[in-house]
Amino acid sequence: MTVVTKDIAFQTKGNCDIIDITPQVAKKVEESGVSNGTVTLFISGSTAGITTIEYEPNLLSDFEHMWDRVIPQNIPYAHNKTWGDGNGHSHVRASMLGASLTIPFVNKRLTLGTWQQIVFIDFDNRPRSRKIVLQIMGE
Amino acid sequence: MTVVTKDIAFQTKGNCDIIDITPQVAKKVEESGVSNGTVTLFISGSTAGITTIEYEPNLLSDFEHMWDRVIPQNIPYAHNKTWGDGNGHSHVRASMLGASLTIPFVNKRLTLGTWQQIVFIDFDNRPRSRKIVLQIMGE
Amino acid sequence: MTVVTKDIAFQTKGNCDIIDITPQVAKKVEESGVSNGTVTLFISGSTAGITTIEYEPNLLSDFEHMWDRVIPQNIPYAHNKTWGDGNGHSHVRASMLGASLTIPFVNKRLTLGTWQQIVFIDFDNRPRSRKIVLQIMGE
Prior knowledge:
Three copies of one chain form a homotrimer. With 139 residues, chain A is an alpha+beta fold. Chain A is built from four helices and eight strands. In chain A, strands 1-8-3-5-6 form a five-stranded antiparallel β-sheet, covered by helices on one side. In chain A, strands 2-7-4 form a three-stranded antiparallel β-sheet. The radius of gyration of chain A is 16 Å and the shape is elongated. Chains in contact: A-B, A-C, B-C. At the A-B interface, strand 4, helix 2 and strand 5 of A face strand 1, strand 3, helix 3, helix 4 and strand 8 of B.
């Protein structure tokens, strides 16, 4: 049994930018030397979230509109008085969606569905440099 | 330390069908030969989600109504123009709820509460054949 | 590779009480003797949830108000007819947010961001004694 720590770094545009990180995650798992196990993806930060989705432009737009309806940007957030950076909605969305995702792999392949990609969603209100931690565990 | 991969297959009715998979998960963990560790449940697909709930008919109905209010079926979804299969809401709900759940077990027993069951929710708009991956890891 | 099971016990006030459990989790990981791996936090119960957030009073208030808007307490819940304990909203919120969170650690340190804390949210409508299971796995 082995533990291999990797990370993935990338730039985002912020404002609900949805990034497909599937190819990078698949590559890190393949390179790890671990055949069967899990990869835990974790976001070190409090204004972004992680999930899976069919990465198709119309659906990405539907997903973004859902956030605008359910946790709107243009309502008052007390947090915006704390730092004055106007990203109260970003934090609330991130805490709702969650910062971790654990995906099994078998024979070095992620057990994703055919129409299912791993996505990082940057809820912050400005472009950001981001880094995700990958903890690959197995044998 | 061992990694044991199992799966659970079942039929659903779709349309927010909520399936209690606790007995099957408990059985697979018991049969795995692993005493202490975690089971990661993962949905290979993009129109279903996984969580825990008290599996009680009235509460299941409350949970379903929550989805109808928060991410309704009968509003426009751009995704419905992509494939024409009318399940835009199914995808958005699935991405919100999440595709993975990791549960510890101790002495071959899941650490669930007394009134807490593991549920698979099929958000798709038609009956489906489903399969969940279980990655059982521990010693 | 080792599996170390720990737990954290505490009292809550209920009613969306948000408890910062970061120091306790960090301490348990440090004491475990495991250097690199993951800690899976799991809530044994069906009226509480777990996530990460910037633990800042104004943001906590924003997060609580989000729940009041999205899954209100003062609408009818069928579950309230089952047991008569008036916590239908607590269950629905808990199932939406999720009962598990898996966080990597490297050299005995959690890979949290600077402004990111681990929080337990008690959605129940009364004070509760709570216990979280920590499954620490790694080498």
